[in-house]
Design brief:
The complex is a heterodimer of chains A (112) and B (110). Chain A contains no helices and 11 strands. Chain A has 112 residues and is mainly β. In chain A, a hairpin with a 2-residue loop joins β6 and β7. Chain B is built from no helices and 11 strands. In chain B, the strands form 2 sheets. In chain B, strands 2, 4, 5, 6, 9, 10 and 11 form a 7-stranded mixed sheet that branches. A 4-stranded antiparallel sheet of chain B has the order 1-3-8-7, with no helix packed on it. Classes of the chains: A mainly beta (112), B mainly beta (110). The interface between A and B is medium-sized, with 26 and 23 residues.
Chain lengths: 112, 110
């Protein structure tokens, strides 16, 4: 079945450092979404990427969808303590309907 | 105030008992989902429903059952057949792909 892996599993950074999480699918995706889950909370939708090679920015966050539509990345510039949480990618498989497969997640901790 | 509600936030049950988790949404979304999250892991799909009176098994449906009699409601029953039911259960609804999650129910089976 389809697998979506994320690396790293954990990341500790000092406030102000950059952070990147990578998402890799075993199959081609029709589109990919990113979610953030704060400690003790529920996932919150961040963005959706659809086109091959697409890049989108939200303030300090940059999202990229690979040319082959099998991988994606989220880069945070100059992390802040408010960035703490687990970041999940999630992909739709072509012909898979509304079934979204979540990645394993990257837990980010930001230290002062 | 639109959103998704799940109750209760924490639930304790004895082994061998069935338990039903509620999920209600007033977003007028057709599609609803149940996910299970275990510590340090991603979300795994249990069941989903794209329209009233219809639902499909997800990746880990064994030991669970659902119903979708109303658009607003998608309750999940964790049966005694589920071998490892202790987990964080998240309900979601969606429109145009974007998923809106409820606050979750943390189920502990003693």
């Amino acid at each position: 079945g389809q697998q979506v892996m994320q690396i790293p599993q954990y990341q500790h950074v000092q406030e102000g450092e950059d952070f990147t999480t990578y998402c890799n699918s075993s199959t081609t995706l029709s589109n990919i979404q990113w979610y953030k889950q704060r400690p003790g909370g529920h996932p919150v939708f961040l963005i959706q990427l659809v086109k091959s090679g697409e890049v989108k920015k939200q303030k300090r966050l940059t999202f990229q969808f690979g040319e082959a539509k099998k991988n994606s990345s989220l880069h945070i510039t100059a992390t802040q303590t408010t960035d703490v949480g687990t970041y999940f990618c999630a992909g739709f498989r072509p012909g898979g309907g509304n079934k979204l497969t979540f990645g394993t997640g990257t837990q980010l901790k930001v230290e002062l | 105030d639109g959103g998704i509600t799940q109750s209760p936030k924490y639930l304790f049950r004895k082994e061998g008992q069935n338990v039903t988790l509620s999920c209600e949404q007033n977003l007028n979304h057709d599609a609803m989902y149940w996910y299970r999250q275990d510590p340090g892991q991603g979300l795994r799909l249990i069941y989903y429903s794209q329209i009233v009176n219809d639902f499909q098994k997800g990746d880990i449906a064994e030991g669970y059952s659902v119903s979708r009699e109303k658009k607003e409601s998608f309750p999940l029953t964790v049966t005694s057949a589920q071998k490892n039911p202790t987990a964080f259960y998240l309900c979601a609804s969606s429109i145009r792909g974007e998923k809106f999650f409820g606050p979750g129910t943390r189920l502990t089976v003693l």
